[in-house]
Design brief:
The structure is a homodimer. Chain A is of the alpha+beta class. Helices cover about 15% and strands about 30% of the residues of chain A. Chain A starts with a helix and ends with a helix.
């Protein structure tokens, strides 16, 4: 072989040529999916509504009892089907008198990602159990996250669409 | 074989004995994980902050322009490591003067499920683009959900822990 460096050069050229193009910062590739794990469950017994956290997450509750209100993020697990996750428009509250709306303009329990958000009053925090006043969720609903409610960042002087103003 | 029915009986007894016990309603087994899919990304360009939805989700925006404010749920994607997801206590805002707190008593970007929640002012909704006033998130952050802000269910007269009252 007279020119072995030609092979080396060829391999190099091929490697550069076949590499994926550099991504501009605003074209960053985002992973197609993420995984969430239940941290506990909602329980309803004897007129009490509680969130029972898995014991391993109990250290995450330190100081929550200083807040009067907490956002509960949970999973609409009964709707976790490809069909329910593909719904993009609904009549809010299932009432045909409410105008057809995109799911991102409603709090409907069908949406691409079945994350629910409720603001709840904290009654007590004991060990791994948070008692709340109430929540519009089925018993045993999996809970994903808790966040303290901080009015300075979590409230706004808001306007609403006409159909909702009378509610 | 003199007593073949003994074998049938044996198999039956074994099947019943090895079946999992019936679950009481309040002991329902919850799936160990769920999957979330980005619906779009946060962009920051020319002093404008926008959420660019994937085109396929555009029908979900119908009517959102009637609301002045929207909750943006996004994913702290830069912290999606087993290590960051196992952090359960932090000093809020990374300031050691703030008392050690459970992550569920803070809005820290490290937590078991990396869901972020920000209330944002809607500037405009055009096709698959929502312009918002601002958001404390990196460019290209994946967005998981949008929910309209409805003061009657999303506000409360709240109290805060002492260390936060001066903020």
């Amino acid at each position: 072989m007279k020119h072995p460096y030609l092979i080396v050069l060829g391999v190099f050229v091929l490697a550069v040529w076949s590499a994926p193009p550099a991504e501009a910062d605003n074209e960053q590739v985002v992973p197609k999916q993420f995984t969430v794990y239940p941290i506990g469950q909602i329980k309803k017994q004897d007129r009490r509504t509680t969130i029972i956290l898995d014991r391993k997450y109990q250290p995450g509750l330190l100081g929550l009892d200083g807040f009067s209100h907490v956002y509960v993020l949970y999973w609409f697990d009964r709707n976790d089907t490809p069909r329910n996750r593909s719904v993009l428009q609904v009549h809010p509250l299932g009432n045909k008198k409410n105008p057809l709306s995109g799911v991102f303009a409603t709090r409907a329990p069908v949406r691409p990602n079945l994350i629910a958000l409720s603001l709840c009053k904290v009654i007590s925090v004991r060990e791994n159990v948070i008692e709340i006043d109430q929540i519009d969720a089925f018993p045993n609903t999996p809970v994903l996250d808790l966040k303290p409610y901080i009015p300075s960042i979590d409230t706004a002087t808001a306007t609403l669409p006409e159909w909702l103003k009378s509610k």
